[in-house]
Design goal:
Blueprint lengths: L4 H44 L7 E5 L4 E5 L7 E9 L2 E10 L7 H15 L4 E9 L5 E12 L2 E12 L2 E9 L1 H6 L1 H9 L7
Antiparallel strand pairs: 1-2, 3-4, 4-8, 5-6, 6-7, 7-8
Length: 198
Amino acid sequence: MNIPEYYKQFQKQPEKKEEEGKKTEQPVASQKPESKPELKQQTQVTQQAPQVKDKTVPYQSNDFKLNLLEDWQDKTIYTLTGPVTDGIQHNVVINVDKEVEFNSIEEYADWQIKSLEAELKGCTLLKRGETKLTNGTTAYEAIFKWYPVEDVCIYQHQIYILIDKTAFKMTASFTKKTRQTIGPAVLRMMLSFNPIPK
């Protein structure tokens, strides 16, 4: 059966597609062998790299552990977040200072109080004095009042603890209202502080 010339072009199209498919497959096939030697070279370089032995100490947090370089220090600031009430985010911030040069909790507290008064211009010290943690450990507390912006009064309660040469500072902030509502529970939480012996 004779096919008119006009229709022959449609008959040849599938053959062209197959040839084009073969052409596109060839570069892909030729790329795969090239990429494998590159991978081998990279792994060989990694294996040949000399192992460096760093001076480290084991470090462990609540969520992870790693090899801490020997001359590095942990300066973690712990933030325990509570509710947003009366327009502020409530939290307790715990700072740890290791190897402090203070001989008594009063000296450490005095230094902290003077630092805060210099930092927070216009703050008023409402109370300072010795207190006790729930476990009987002697601590020191200070309560400040200050205005971060006009018409907003913040009360800040700090508790200081000194165990051997490690000092701890806990800070909680309240509004006038939340000092009465959630303040007592937050203070009980702070006083339950119990340092882990090392």
